[in-house]
Amino acid sequence: MANAKSNLKVLVVGGTGYIGRRIVSASLAQGYPTYVLQRPATEIGLDIEKLQMLLSFKKQGAHLVEGSFSDIQSLVDAVKQVDVVICTMSGVHFRSHNLLLQLKLVEAIKQAGNVKRFLPSEFGLDPARMGHALEPGRVSFDEKMVVRKAIEDANIPFTYVCGASFAGYFAGNLSQMGTLVPPKDKVLIYGDGNTTVSFMDEDDIGSYTIKTLDDPRTLNKTLYLLPPENLLTQRQLVDIWENLVGKKLEKISLSKEDLLASMKGMDYAGQVGVGHFYHIFYEGSLTNFEIGEEGEEASKLYPEVKYTRMDEYLKIYA
Question: Assign residue 284 a region: left if phi > 0, alpha if psi is -120 to 50, beta otherwise?
Fold first, then answer.
């Protein structure tokens, strides 16, 4: 559905990733000329899934632009072809954690001098509110803040998209660690299970992200993904599931002390993950604040996006 704003050219860096592919799809769906950074042959190697995804984007009308983080000029050349750059490089440790590579992209945008908006890799907890975060998981937030400082120091116009837990990792499994599918009999409840969490279908994250690109209301602001009907406690999420499958699960409460003690003996990625679960499910760090001058809430700005409710989302798992 091409629209009036479709003359803005959009480059997605990390377009084959978990969130990146949704952003590419949403950009194409909303009618933007969409460019996707493709690494040189030597870097893609034999990663056939990645290459075939890039080719499928091309079939859908995206343009592939070659560029490498080991060659700043190639990034400058890529950026010069577009108006908006969205970076979706991974910040999670069980995949590939490379948030600080974005500093090279910031440098390229600065040198190119033509970019009207940059959206760095964010999409989760707002790092500006996570100064108190636990080690070692705080590294994700610290690195995002380093990237933000570089963007703001260079006077690059930005939008930060924050504030949802990805439904694929937090809803489909009823927020259980170490699995992606719902438990059959017993469910671990964090504390009393009554902390409010924002859950969002990853396709909706893509849609909301693309909506911001030409919107003056989101210029140099944070867009928070806090759609009211998806602000649920873990107990409410479990309740939705129990109603769907017509079966009660045994609930086992995990105290925050026991959660934090479980970090001992875990590998680094596991410890990072536990820290993030602690902030989301015990502190309520996705939802425990009022949005001030610095931000806007996505579903208020864009009521036309029909976001997926969690009862609908969970049906496919039943």
Answer: left
The token pair that represents 28 in the structure block: 């194409």
144 assigned to active site:
yes
Local structure of residue 282 (DSSP, 8 states): I
| Catalytic annotation, pick one of 58, 80, 104, 144 | 144
Q: Which helix (H) or strand (E) holds 258?
A: helix 256-261
User: Which stretches does DSSP call E strand in the chain?
Assistant: 10-13, 34-38, 63-66, 84-87, 117-119, 159-162, 165-166, 186-190, 196-200, 221-224, 231-233, 250-254, 295-297
C-alpha 117: how far from chain center:
18
Whole-model pTM: value is 0.96
Number of Cβ atoms within 10 Å of the Cβ of 228: 10
Two tokens at 257?
Answer: 């002390």
Tokens of 87: 């970076």
How much of the chain exceeds pLDDT 90, in percent? 94
Mean pLDDT within 221-239 = 98
